[in-house]
Design goal:
heterodimer; A: alpha+beta; Penicillin-binding protein 2a (Domain 2); Beta-lactamase; five-stranded mixed beta sheet; 27 helices; B: mainly alpha; 2 domains; two-stranded antiparallel sheet; 14 helices; globular; disordered C terminus
Chain lengths: 693, 371
């Protein structure tokens, strides 16, 4: 074309330029068309498989149906944990568009209290987006219907029929059974199972529910549905029923367990009942407890406040995790050790309120002395001097070995989450642990169940059962097969009869627990009291003053005394002495033979306590809610029960403080104790004060 | 040709464009019928009614004389700029973006009308410009002003898509008017240099997100990448022959957003497959080819530029929408002409085609009539 500094442009050149540029533009447009066609072919042909899959996974929603959890049954088939069909409402945080409005609307429809809404908000804050948050379960049809019709306006809200775990006796089985709750983020990380984030699914969080999670869980059902983008179900495509989890049959007797837990009343303590023929654990109650029914939706602010305010450690399973000096309940066992070592039971010692060893005098609990004491009297009167005296002769090893044979310091093969097993000290143990030689006061302490000697209530029950039966009974919790025949302990029947008679005299003779006699003529209870000091005399006398300084009360027993059938151990933490324990044991044993009579006694007592543990917990919750409302602090632990157990584990792993002296034996009964105190001029008192303070 | 059989008035009609349009709109109505779960209401029947009305309108436009177009170019442009200012003003007072003027009987979107109007005014401007001046700055500066005012007002609304459509129409006319090539190359280079800066300073957050999403749609498939992901799933799952009429799960189960408007092509693709897509592409090719033919055969510079500019405007709609739907362009709210549900775009595109039909008529009658 024309080139130069000033190109000449005419309409002709413009026409040419137009024609050329038209071709260029149209060509470019055609190019875009080809690009589009190629892209369409690429997506729809080459990537067809990928996108078909994506389209199907859009269209079809696989909903897991949480399986019905296996029931936990007692030895007679009565449900301890079962499932109730109900209606529930959940939130899926990811799908919420306006959490505040949704929560307000749910609160209005379900009439939730401010505290509940605040708890929900806490849970929403903490939950990962995919983790469903339970709003309410156990709804009636009307509330459910009210939510259901508004679901289109409440994105992220799910309302469905489901099965909820139900514990008919609530707090009575808390520690034994545990509870269920929504899976935590950690649980999900571990298992990567979509069932865990299915709304309405719960996993075992403590106790047997946790231990037998895999057996109880079952297999989820599934529902394939066609859904719209907003989650509306268009039609069902396929449905598979769930397979319920396997039931779990326990050796526990549900009514007895409930009775034992309720009979503990406001005390902090534990009751264990064992079958002397099979080793079956008929009851293992630990109180105070939590209500597993109310824990299943997580632990709210009020519950958290109640738990952290309670010095009775309601989260600790005291049967397995509570370690206490067993006090004088070890004496029948020590007596067995003496008999095995060849001591004549009729050999006597004179108790004048204390025993002089070298230049030290070790006091008996009865400062006035028991006079001439043989083995039987030493048991039924719980004479400390007798045991001090013969322990010096026989030595610590036979005693420690007998204690271990009877179950002290032992961990049992039980399907529980954790056990603390305490200590049976002996000279080698002390040397190893503290690098110190065994001292006279160590033997003195051990023979009266103080000092380093620590046990849990289950061990005490096993000890009672083994002494009662003369057999090496193993505690059993699952009723899954025939109880194995327990081998003999190898005790001579003569020795057993002797100790049994002495233990019967504790209750039915001139012993320390006359008031533990069963209210029926044909069944005689045999037992042994124990009062274990918690702090030295210089801090507290163990009977009055601050609760945490009071003595622990113990009682081990079995019945009938001449034909042992049931053994029982009761511990009342800081109960002030054995008098707090044996009435409980008496009533629990009465319940085994005459439930109506025992229940009558209990109902009378509960009237004074403010109802059953369940009712008292509910009342306490209401009081706390009124008092603290939403100002209660939010829970700082995700799983307080597990945390409490971790603390118990840490505590039992910590070495005991080194014992530097003999414990001062405590009076077995408040009444005689008062008498002792009332006798100021009794002879042994000065010698007792010789002990360095 | 067959004057004896068919009346002259009918034979005279530009069937080369009317037939493809009828096919496309009929098919569009079918897709809308399916998108409404097999119902003529609310979209399909309205689509057909609108098409009929606007086709009639296009035929009326086609009968208008060239002088009227030339005469109306500047006043029409000024009137629309005034309406755009009004819209922006109402938007500023009411708070938030405003694109509509409520006329009582209908919602008027002045920015839509500006798309053909800018082409008209540019064709008029370059027609009036002496050929020698096309190489000088005098050919650029007034045009730049003519473009900057409406484009700026539309972007303020903010409506990036329409702003770009207006700019595209204007620049196309400038290019075809024979302005020096180096200007376009220079402007292209400058745009490439400024774009990153503009991206981070001028764009609104939501516009920026759309672009980012376009670059990596899988990064947030449930958030801003949702549109593109779902559209690709719809197209990809259709395969060669589609899932069958009324069988598209993506659209019927509401996974595909805007299934009857901006993403109607994906709705169609899911049910008709690649075959349907290529068919639609082919019909658009016929329409655009017809536009170019008319432009090439146009009797004078004004008609040429007018027809070519209108063709480019229609092309811009089609190309941007399809590129967006198949995931090659960011999500901008531009519907697919003659298939998407919506009156405004149908009106704009029919004005464009009506104008081309007018040019076609002028060229058939020869240059004599309209001097």
């Amino acid at each position: 074309m024309i080139s130069g500094k000033i190109p000449h442009v005419s309409s002709g050149t413009l026409q040419n330029s137009f024609d050329r540029r038209t071709l260029v533009v149209a060509g470019l447009q055609a190019g875009v068309g080809v690009l589009l066609a190629a892209r369409m072919a690429w997506i729809s042909l080459a990537q067809n498989e990928k996108y078909t899959l994506a389209s199907e996974s859009n269209r079809v929603n696989l909903t897991l149906i949480p399986p019905r959890r296996g029931a936990i049954l007692d030895r007679n088939g009565a449900p301890i944990a079962s499932n109730r069909a109900d209606f529930r409402v959940d939130l899926v945080p990811d799908r919420l568009t306006d959490p505040d409005r949704t929560l307000a609307e749910l609160g209005r429809l379900l009439k939730l209290s401010d505290v509940r809404i605040k708890d929900l908000r806490d849970k929403l804050d903490k939950a990962h987006g995919f983790q469903p948050v339970e709003v309410a379960a156990g709804l009636d049809w009307d509330s459910f219907a009210a939510i259901s019709v508004r679901l289109p306006d409440l994105p992220g809200v799910l309302a469905q029929r489901s099965f909820s775990r139900w514990y008919p006796t609530g707090p009575s089985v808390g520690h034994l059974i545990g509870y269920v709750g929504p899976a935590s983020a950690e649980d999900y990380e571990k298992e990567r199972n979509p069932l865990l984030i299915t709304p309405g699914f719960k996993i075992g969080k403590d106790g047997l529910e946790k231990r037998f999670e895999q057996n109880l869980r079952g297999t989820p059902g599934a529902r394939r549905v066609e859904v719209t983008a907003s989650g509306k179900v268009v039609r069902d495509l396929e449905m598979r029923e769930d397979i319920p989890g396997q039931p779990l049959r326990l050796t526990i007797s549900a009514p007895l367990q409930d009775y034992a837990a309720r009979r503990l009343g406001p005390e902090s303590g534990a009751v264990v009942v064992m079958d002397c023929l099979t080793g079956d654990i008929l009851a293992m109650a630990s109180m105070p407890s939590y209500d597993p029914n109310s824990f299943s939706d997580g632990i709210g602010r009020i519950e958290w406040k109640m738990l952290s305010d309670d010095d009775h450690v309601p989260l600790r399973n005291k049967v397995l995790r509570g370690l206490y000096p067993p006090g004088s309940t070890v004496k029948p066992g020590v007596a067995m050790a003496f008999l095995e070592a060849g001591l004549d039971p009729e050999a006597t010692v004179n108790c004048a309120g204390g025993l002089r060893v070298g230049n030290r005098v070790f006091g008996c609990w009865n400062r006035r002395g028991h006079g001439t004491v043989n083995m039987a009297k030493a048991i039924y009167q719980s004479c400390d001097v007798y045991f001090y005296h013969f322990a010096q002769q026989i030595g610590m090893y036979p005693i420690a070995s007998m204690m271990r044979r009877l179950g002290m310091g032992q961990k049992f093969d039980l399907p529980v989450v954790a056990q603390s097993y305490g200590t049976v000290p002996d000279p080698a143990w002390k040397q190893r642990k503290y690098d110190k030689p065994w001292a006279v006061f160590d033997t003195v302490n051990a023979t009266i169940g103080q000092g380093y000697m620590l046990s849990n209530p289950l061990q005490q029950a096993v000890m009672a059962a083994r002494i009662a039966s003369g057999r090496l009974l193993q505690p059993r919790l699952l009723l899954d097969r025939k109880a194995p025949e327990a081998p003999s302990m190898g005790f001579s029947q003569e020795h057993l009869d002797y100790v049994h008679k002495a233990m019967s005299d504790v209750v039915n003779g001139p012993g320390t627990a006359g008031r533990a006699r069963l209210p029926m003529p044909d069944v005689l209870l045999a037992g042994k009291t124990g009062t274990a000091q918690v702090v030295g005399l210089h801090i507290s006398d163990g009977k009055s003053g601050p609760w945490k300084y009071r003595d622990h009360g113990h009682f081990i027993c079995y019945a009938p005394f001449d034909k042992p059938r049931y053994a029982c151990a009761v511990v009342v933490e800081h109960g002030g002495g054995s008098a707090a324990a044996y009435p409980i044991a008496r009533d629990v044993m009465t319940y085994l033979y005459d439930p109506a009579k025992a229940m009558e006694v209990l109902l009378g007592m509960e009237a004074g306590w403010g109802g059953t543990p369940q009712e008292r917990l509910n009342a306490k919750y209401r009081a706390y809610e009124t008092r603290f409302g939403t100002s209660a602090p939010r829970p700082t632990e995700d799983d307080p029960v597990a945390s409490a157990d971790a603390r118990a584990e840490a505590a039992s792993a910590r070495p005991l403080p080194e014992q530097t002296d003999a414990a001062s034996p405590r009076p077995e009964d408040p009444a005689p104790a008062a008498a002792t105190l009332a006798a100021p001029a009794s002879a042994p008192s000065p010698s007792a004060s010789e002990a360095p303070r | 040709m067959r004057a004896g059989v068919i009346p002259a008035a009918i034979a005279r009609q530009p069937w080369g464009i009317i037939l493809p349009l009828c096919v496309l709109n009929g098919f569009g109505a079918l897709v809308l019928y399916s998108a409404a779960s097999g119902s003529w209401t609310p979209w399909a029947i309205q689509h057909l009614i609108r098409f009929s009305v606007f086709l009639l309108m296009a035929m009326v436009i086609a009968r208008l004389p060239r002088d009227l177009f030339k005469l109306a170019a500047y006043p029409g442009y000024i009137g629309l700029v005034f309406l755009l200012m009004l819209v922006d003003l109402i938007g500023a007072v009411g708070g938030g973006s405003q694109r509509w003027l409520n006329l009582g009987f209908m919602q008027l979107q002045p920015s839509e009308l500006m798309k053909p109007a800018i082409v008209l005014v540019f064709a008029r401007f370059y027609d009036g410009l002496p050929p020698a001046m096309t190489q000088s700055w005098r050919s650029l500066m007034p045009a730049a002003g003519l473009l900057a005012v409406p484009a700026g007002l539309v972007m303020l609304q903010p409506d990036l898509g329409t702003g770009l459509a207006i700019t595209f129409g204007a620049v196309s006319v400038m290019f075809l008017a024979g302005l020096p090539l180096r200007w376009f190359l220079g402007a292209g280079a400058a745009t490439a240099a400024i774009a990153p800066v503009a991206f981070f300073t001028l764009l609104h957050d939501y516009q920026r997100n759309r672009v980012l999403t376009f670059l990596d749609p899988e990064s947030d498939p449930l958030g801003t990448g949702y549109h593109i992901s779902q559209s690709k799933i719809a197209i990809g799952s259709g395969g060669l022959f589609g899932k069958g009429f009324g069988q598209g799960s993506q659209s019927h189960l509401e996974y595909l957003p805007e299934a009857h408007t901006d993403f109607v092509f994906a709705t169609m693709a899911e049910e008709w497959g690649l075959v349907g897509m290529l068919a639609v592409l082919f019909v658009f090719m016929l329409i655009l080819r017809w536009g170019w033919r008319v432009a090439q055969n146009a009797p004078d510079r004004f008609s040429r530029l007018l027809a070519a500019g209108m063709t480019c405007t229609v092309f811009f709609y089609v190309a941007i929408n399809l590129l967006m739907v198949v995931g090659l362009a960011p999500v901008v709210g531009i519907p697919l002409p003659f298939m998407s549900h919506g009156g405004s775009s149908m009106m704009t595109n029919m004005i464009c085609l009506g104008t081309i039909m007018a040019v076609d008529r002028w060229s058939r009658r020869g240059t004599g009539l309209a001097g």
